[in-house]
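Researcher: Next entry: Ribulose-phosphate 3-epimerase (Gaoshiqia sediminis).
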Amino acid sequence: MIQKLVAPSILSADFIRLGDDIAMLNRSQADYIHCDVMDGVFVPNISFGLPVISQVAAIAAKPLDVHLMIVNPDQYIEAFQAAGAAILTVHYEACTHLHRTIERIKAAGMKASVCLNPHTPVHLLEDIIEDLDMVLIMSVNPGFGGQRFIENAYQKVKKLKELILSKNADCLIEVDGGVNFETGKELYEAGADVLVSGSFIFQSEDPVATINHFKAL
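Model: Predicted structure:
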């Protein structure tokens, strides 16, 4: 059963008024608060890190869904748990020993998630899907908000859903990039459980209503 969960990305929030935006998300029907951590090496952009995560966690009423777009994520697993992450996503492309990384995330008390870049095929997760709590499909190239949706993401979601069902795995499917009401509806229909949306939510006239509408797609 599709759950229709929503994870607004604070990469598109107003950082001058970040506390107000977090309070708004607390009032909304958002299920998670999505935090994009970029190091300027793994992706061509720098966002924010542990101090901001800690500040957000102190006032957030929703679990923090932290997406690490960084090299050597293993160095920071326990630090992000201490900062308040509930879900920690690492990139398949950044982890040499992915199973070990997933085990460490779980041992630290967080849910473990793996992200696939647009060019990375779903079948590479076949031997680890049963160990994952979530898989994040990137529907844009990671690094910047507001990019155009890559249509192949629909097929990747369908393939991933088939893999999860074939393995009888308990794993959510999350999608990030170019998510709006049109793409969101199709993603839910393809089998996605969690939609990440940044600029579409935060730049709308009424972000709370926009989040609520996602839940009703």
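Model: Note for the record: The mean pLDDT is 96.
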